Amino acid sequence: MDYFEVCWSIFSTICLVNVVFGILVCEITTFTVLAAVPIFSSAAGAIANGLCYYVYYLKNPVINEVVAAVFSDFFWLLQEASLLLYSYIILQRVLRPKQWRVFSILFWTLMVLTAITRVFIAIYRAKFLIEGVAQFEVIINYLHIGYFTFMAISECLSAYFLVVIFASAKTASMSAALKVGLLRYLTRSTEMRVAFLAVLGVVRTIIHPFQTPGQKAVNIASQLDRFLYCLFCLYPIVLYFDTLASKLRFNEDRSIYTHSDQAAAGNRYGLSTQTRCYTTTKSNYASKMYGPDTPGDRNTSQEQIVPANGSTRSGVSEVEMEDMDVEGFVIRKTTEVTVT
């Protein structure tokens, strides 16, 4: 069968395009560890799907098929497991030490179990290609159930901690969130975008027991799984949006600080300005107001989650940040508010 007549070619092409998009995003912003995660995942997915076509849709020597099948399982593991590192890197910088120890132990335990399960899948796939026993495909199907279960638990674990952080930020600045609308606030939240990955993992775990063994999508469950895997291949694009949004927020913050300095200088000539800074520490959440509060002023409200003992300028806590790749356990979200 021709290459572009099967779905694996489409999956591989999507992953290749994602790699190109990732390089473009890095050119627009800067190369960071967070930006490298979706690029690495997409590259691994492109190789894995190409090898799958080589194994199941072409006639090759058995030894070649076995080697290609083992490598395809290895690259599928890299594709699916590496995306979890996106949440891991963010949480590494924002969790309290005790929370981080609990999360890291659970996370790496689940990752090891996931890798072990994938190794057994590769072993039985090789035995099936060599011996041709249909029972091995049934075993592979059951192993996939365990594999996706461990993946889903890992994704839900990361999503839980991310949503907890999001809820804390929303509580600390509820009034600002309501003024811009809750839906827009959720959409612009990094935590909710990343946590959506958990939904894909859970659904794939639920439907996998109903699939038929083998690589052919001959029933509804198998076709639905292909659809969900296609969404998984497209998911790095969401992370690219997240990277670009982080860069935009960073530039907006710099612009706001510059405007604040200029406005402070303008106060000497009878002008008035208002700056709001919602400051949240790792152990104590609080909201503070800085600057004069003159009715009728119109300005921009900045929401930040920064260490309370951070550097200050004009009495406002300030932390430079780009793509979450900074020290100091920092997350920021920017919401535009009109003060009347």
TrEMBL record:
Record flagged with keyword Transmembrane: yes
User: Would I find DNA-binding among this entry's keywords?
Assistant: no
Where is the chain membrane-spanning? 6-26, 33-56, 68-91, 103-124, 144-169, 227-245
Q: Where is this region: Disordered?
A: 288-314
Query: What domain of life does the native source organism fall in?
Result: Eukaryota
- Write out the biased-composition intervals (Polar residues): 297-314
Which keywords belong to this entry? Membrane, Transmembrane, Transmembrane helix
- Origin species, per record, is Fusarium anthophilum
Protein name in UniProt: Uncharacterized protein
